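Bench log. Compound arrived from synthesis this morning; before running ITC I wanted a structural hypothesis for how iron/sulfur cluster sits in the protein. Inputs:
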Amino acid sequence: MMVFGPVPSRRLGRSLGVSHIPAKKCPYSCVYCQLGGGYRQIVARSAFYDSKNIIDEVKVRVEQVINAGESIDYVTLVPDGEPTLDQNLGAMIRGVQPVGLRVAVMTNASLISRLDVRNDLSYADLVSIKVDSVDKHVCRKVNRPYRSLALERILDGILEFAHDYRGELITETMLVRDVNDDEGCVNRVAQFLSLMGPARAYVAIPTRPPALAWAVPTEAASLNTAYQVMRQKVGQAEYLIGYEPKFDSVWAHAEWP
Ligand code: SF4
């Protein structure tokens, strides 16, 4: 199914999810990925599905939900993989927006050094960007990026996007014990996020079975320190540390990824 929900999201309220690329395609292979192993790590953008069909499906579902007396806060492009791999991303955002709902994209920013990717993301009303580390060796451990990706270019692309973007920008930093949770590492991430100026910086921990069993959440003390550092350096910081609550809706067939 391409369109699911609305499902509850602490960040986005009631969110109608759109899965617009085939599962497990991502330029990263994060150790904490809840989708498990068997990834097809790719960096080439493609048109995976007919975006018109997906847009039509969104419109039908929105109408059904509204007719059932329920509400939707966001249409969220959140496939089981990286949404910017879809070369129809911008067209899809613009195709969905006429239904009158805000459109959000959750990206790992791995391809954001590309101008076409930044342009596509710029149409979204809200963009969430993952920044787990700004240290090359740590990023290699936690995100395990495709070999051709250079972290410096990704970080430059993020800053360029953040500078030009007119929508709501939020960030997410997932903390894995003994990988990216030491204070120095977190401080450098927070320093970088302060340059981005997000509306909120979320400090997250893995809450679902990870791809690799040793990728466990950071300890409570380190989590608290990270939160304090983010608050101090970025301003708005929030925890994202539990399962999203189950939502009692006839439309909710899936939990938030
Ligand atoms: S970026 Fe997301 S989808 Fe890709 S490997 Fe990491 S957790 Fe999984």
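What the model suggests: The pocket of iron/sulfur cluster is lined by residues 26, 28-30, 33, 35, 81-82, 108 (CB under 6 Å). Residues 113 and 157 are 4 Å apart (CA to CA).
ITC booked for Thursday regardless.
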